[in-house]
Design brief:
This protein is an alpha+beta fold. Helices cover 23% and strands 29% of the residues. InterPro entries: DNA_ligase_ATP-dep_cent (IPR012310), DNA_ligase_ATP-dep_CS (IPR016059), DNA_ligase_OB (IPR029319), NA-bd_OB-fold (IPR012340), NAD_dep_DNA_ligaseB (IPR050326).
């Protein structure tokens, strides 16, 4: 489907872009299918990223604009006020609902509420999935729309070409010093393709990932009568997490079956996360 839309776009003649954009909007597939096809990042592990593009990793809520509504990573429709998307384009966008560093909990609460205050949020876009060309050319399609619609609640995330890895490390230090999350690295020549990809990498000093809670273990000493740790499973196996929880969370821990986000520093010889620390319940819809 994406190939069909790209080819159609390439066939548009000069002066007919508005008509083409409208027709592209009618060609998109349903929301759930689009959400399932989102591009997902892998961890940076010493890959050669010379000539790639880098940008700040935003700690927001993933959102996909399908020309009619904003969808979560799992395909659920967000409910922003009508004016929020009034000036959105008639072509698909992939990005993050974001308002600033260190505000994930607030952003998540806003987008999960039917009456949340969206006034400080914007969709920060890192790709235009159905546009033709490389990453820079795809984003240029959005920038052209924003030049004509500066009031749109959209930001085109700046992409910097990577000349050497020292540049990436300096960028990471700058972001983390300001309270940011990390760096996203992207092969600009690669087309947009859904699923976990070697062409999109995340680089952070401290990594995070997701797992599913499988069991609760009672605490000892000062944690007697409360949670001491819980077992958790990811695609590589089962392990325990016992740190990072507040007293309130130990008294009312995430139920078995909950998907949580944890932080870790590298891997053990068995491939399991080293020093895993609880961060939060994954709250994406």
């Amino acid at each position: 489907m994406l190939t069909t839309i790209r080819q159609f776009w390439l066939n548009c003649k000069t002066g007919m872009h508005c008509l083409c954009l409208s027709l592209v909007g009618m060609l998109v597939f349903n929301g759930a299918a689009q959400a399932e096809a989102l591009l997902l990042a892998k961890e940076y592990q010493q890959q050669n990223v010379l000539g790639w593009a880098m940008s700040e990793k935003l700690d927001g809520v993933r959102a996909f604009w399908n020309t009619r509504q904003l969808l979560s990573r799992n395909g659920y429709a967000f409910t922003p006020p009508p004016e929020f998307t009034r000036d959105f384009p008639p072509f698909a966008l992939d990005g993050e609902l974001y308002s600033g560093r260190g505000q994930f909990e607030r952003i998540s609460a806003v987008v999960r509420s039917y009456r949340g205050d969206w006034s400080k949020l914007k969709l920060h876009v890192f790709d235009v999935p159905e546009a033709p060309g490389n990453l820079y050319e795809r984003l240029a399609v959005l920038q052209k729309w924003l030049d004509a619609h500066p009031q749109a609640n959209i930001v085109c995330i700046p992409q910097q070409p990577v000349h050497d890895f020292a540049q990436v490390q300096a960028f990471l230090r700058q972001i983390e010093a300001g309270g940011g999350e990390g760096v996203m690295l992207r092969d600009p020549k690669a087309p947009y393709q859904g699923g976990r990809s070697n062409q999109l990498l995340k680089l952070k000093s401290v990594h995070d990932a997701e797992c599913t809670v499988t069991a609760h273990h009672p605490g000892k000493g000062k944690y007697t009568g409360r949670l001491g740790a819980f077992s958790c499973r990811n695609e590589d196996g089962e392990f325990r997490i016992g740190s990072g929880l507040s007293d309130a969370e130990r008294s009312n821990p995430p139920p078995v079956g909950t998907v949580i986000t944890y932080r870790y520093r590298g891997f053990t010889a068995k491939g399991l996360p080293r020093f895993p620390t609880y961060l939060r319940v994954r709250s994406d819809p």
